[in-house]
From TrEMBL:
It comes from Clostridium carboxidivorans P7. Gene3D superfamilies: Homeodomain-like. SUPFAM superfamilies: Homeodomain-like. Residues 12-89 form the Mor transcription activator domain. InterPro entries: c-mor_Regulatory_Protein (IPR052411), Homeodomain-like_sf (IPR009057), Mor_transcription_activator (IPR014875), YraL-like (IPR049739). It comes from the Bacteria. This is Mor transcription activator domain-containing protein. It holds the Pfam family Mor. The lineage of its organism: Bacteria, Bacillati, Bacillota, Clostridia, Eubacteriales. Transmembrane segments: none annotated.
């Protein structure tokens, strides 16, 4: 999120009204509820994690052990098992 100068966006009368409540402080104005993005959509991390998890699952199916996957992807064995379980559930629900 980048900051914008209020005087570049808002009319002077609105700035003066806001200054009555918040004078010289930072103010966060949230998005409208109908224009909110889901977690990870803006940064692309959601898609990156999907690809990583699919990669982990494919390696697991090829015989790579949970311990080796944990070391390779810098995750705990518990996390690897959770990813495998979720990927299996995704495949079953797609059928």
């Amino acid at each position: 999120m980048k900051y914008e100068k209020a005087q570049n966006i808002l009319p002077q009368n609105i700035i003066e009204l806001i200054q009555q409540y918040v004078d010289g402080s930072y103010l966060y104005i949230p998005r409208k509820s109908n224009s909110k993005k889901a977690w990870g959509e803006h940064s692309g991390i959601k898609n990156s994690l999907k690809k990583r998890n699919r990669n982990i699952f494919n390696k697991y199916k090829q015989g790579v052990s949970v311990k080796e996957l944990a070391e390779q992807f810098y995750l705990t064995e518990y996390s690897i098992r959770r990813i495998i379980r979720k990927e299996k559930q995704g495949i079953l629900s797609d059928s």
